[in-house]
């Protein structure tokens, strides 16, 4: 029987330049996480600081550490700004130059999966000219190209719709892409934040919600229930909430970044773990989760991918605190949904539950 297993994104435990990757991995393991979504920024920072920029050496060391901690590297991510580029020369460069390097690193890390977020390159900041196309045929062909190349070496790709994506910004659009790519090694990541963040939340509105938030999300979830998605095509899911802001995220708001989509600015600063209503969480994450697990029947990696301004705190306790919060959230979700094989927070392997671990290997 396949059970749910707790994972967390490496970036959800602290900023790479403030909190070292080995320390974050140790805290994740100490608090009961079994898997890590490894962000390239974390790997890059570790390589620059410890291996003179040698990403391959850093990857081998990260794998050794994860093996010692009995943790799985779920995927390497994000292979971003790829599909649907109008600059076809850049598209070719990403396939012929960047992708082979990522295959090498993923193999060294011991993972067979690379995550691809929907393209959010946006228009040229100087001219306003679009840099991506919404032509579904081009998007699908681009993704088929990397899937076919990856299949030759046993690699999988997992595609996720970002709620600020240029053209793919809903679960429906991402599923249509995955369905049309039609490759066994190309699957879907469903993310509660990006689903609810697109149709329920509007951080630019005083209420923090879209005009018909509850009805629109309910309709979206009804469509998800009846979409006949094979659970095997869902490679993993992410459970994350978002913070209701005190004021609309406009040009006066401290989170505002000129030229950046509002939902992206909100996401980068104000995600929360599920059930953190005391911190301002307000998205109906439990409703989304019930569809994932009860209706679709998903079982597998459940990752907590949190971005937040709190990760930039220089306090060395940040990784331990976020690992604890994440596991508390995961355990509560499992208890409510009656997951079999629910993981309970173990006695920490390294010090007390909230003690920082900043070892370098």
UniProtKB/TrEMBL annotation:
Out of the domains of life, which is the source? Eukaryota
The residues covered by the Xylose isomerase-like TIM barrel domain are: 27-328
Q: Which InterPro entries match?
A: IolE/XylAMocC-like, Xyl_isomerase-like_sf, Xyl_isomerase-like_TIM-brl
What SUPFAM superfamilies is this protein classified in?
Xylose isomerase-like
Q: Where is this region: Disordered?
A: 341-361
Name of the protein: Xylose isomerase-like TIM barrel domain-containing protein
Q: Which organism is it from?
A: Penicillium angulare
């Amino acid at each position: 029987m396949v059970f749910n297993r707790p994972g967390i994104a490496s970036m959800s435990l602290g900023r790479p330049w403030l909190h070292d990757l080995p320390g974050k991995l140790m805290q994740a393991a100490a608090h009961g996480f079994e898997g890590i979504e490894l962000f390239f920024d974390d790997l890059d920072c570790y390589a620059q600081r410890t291996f003179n920029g040698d990403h391959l050496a850093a990857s081998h060391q990260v794998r050794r550490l994860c093996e010692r901690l009995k943790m799985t590297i779920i995927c390497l991510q994000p292979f971003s700004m790829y599909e649907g580029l109008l600059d076809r020369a850049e598209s070719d460069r990403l396939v012929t130059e960047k992708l082979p390097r990522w295959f090498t690193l993923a193999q060294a890390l011991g993972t067979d999966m690379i995550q691809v977020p929907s393209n959010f390159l946006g228009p040229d900041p100087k001219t306003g000219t679009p840099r991506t196309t919404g032509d579904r045929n081009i998007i699908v062909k681009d993704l088929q190209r990397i899937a076919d190349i990856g299949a030759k070496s046993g690699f999988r790709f997992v595609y996720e719709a970002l709620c600020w994506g240029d053209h793919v910004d809903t679960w429906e659009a991402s599923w249509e892409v995955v369905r049309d790519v039609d490759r066994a090694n190309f699957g879907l990541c469903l993310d509660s934040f990006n689903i609810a963040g697109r149709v329920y939340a509007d951080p630019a509105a005083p209420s923090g919600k879209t005009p018909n938030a509850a009805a629109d999300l309910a309709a979206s979830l009804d469509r998800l229930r009846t979409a006949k998605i094979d659970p095997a095509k869902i490679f993993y899911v992410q459970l994350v909430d978002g913070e209701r802001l005190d004021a609309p995220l406009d040009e006066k708001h401290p989170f505002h970044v000129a030229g950046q989509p509002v939902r992206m600015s909100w996401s980068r600063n104000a995600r929360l773990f599920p059930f953190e209503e005391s911190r301002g969480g307000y998205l109906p994450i439990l409703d989304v989760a019930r569809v994932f697990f009860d209706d679709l029947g998903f079982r597998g990696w459940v990752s907590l991918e949190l971005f937040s301004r709190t990760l930039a705190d220089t306090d060395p306790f940040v990784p331990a605190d976020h690992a604890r919060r994440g596991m508390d959230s995961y355990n509560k979700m499992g208890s409510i949904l009656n997951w079999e094989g629910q993981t309970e927070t173990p006695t920490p392997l390294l010090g007390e539950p909230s003690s920082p671990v900043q070892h370098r290997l």
